[in-house]
Amino acid sequence: MAKLSHDAWVLIADGEKALFLKNITDSEDPNLEVVRKEEQENPKDIDQSANRPGRMPDTGPGQMSAMDDTDWHELAKERFADDLADLLYKQAHKHKFEEIVLVASPDTLGELRKKLHKEVEAKVIAEIPKNLTNHPINEIEDQLSGDIAA
Predict the structure, then answer these.
(1) 116 lies in a domain?
(2) Which of 18, 47, 66, 126 is the most buried (most CB within 10 A)?
């Protein structure tokens, strides 16, 4: 398994929030410091939808079938992953980090993985499919110590 070296970054993300952390100590006893926070306003889908789902004529006389409406909440989560991938690319291009651990909810991690630029992919030392965005930093450090073993 990988080690969380000095100055390695850790991205903690879900579909709406992201914390960029930096290890200011060594791999034996990680001490993470917040580098940046990102958050997007993403109300529930019902609050974002303008209309009720449409209906269209079906095969039988006088029959109508419901149509699925766009899930705006899910779409916003996917776009947030796009934004994170772009931000990571810009930071990697500026040499802000040489190694990064991606910790994200499984859906967000999957979306993020699809969007990562090759320059960022080369710096990823571990991926952890967990949602830790609402955990305090000391619990995140403990989780990482267990998940990224020497």
Answers:
(1) yes
(2) 18
Q: b/e map of 42-69 (b: 16 or more CB within 10 Å)?
A: beeeeeeeeeeeeeeeeeeeeeeeeeee
Among 97, 106, 103, 51, smallest CA distance to 77 is for 106
Note down the domain range covering 122: 9-40+68-147
Which residue matches tokens 């000391």? 138
Give the whole-angstrom CA distance, residue 35 versus residue 137.
12
Query: pLDDT tens, position by position, for the chain (150 residues)?
Result: 568 889 999 999 987 889 999 999 877 788 899 998 877 654 444 554 555 555 556 666 666 655 555 555 566 666 888 889 999 999 999 999 999 999 998 988 998 999 999 999 999 999 999 999 889 999 988 888 777 754
pTM (2 d.p.): 0.75
Comparing CA positions, the residue from 148, 137, 118, 145 lying closest to residue 32 is 137
CATH, residue 23: 3.30.420.60
Q: Is 22 contained in some domain?
A: yes
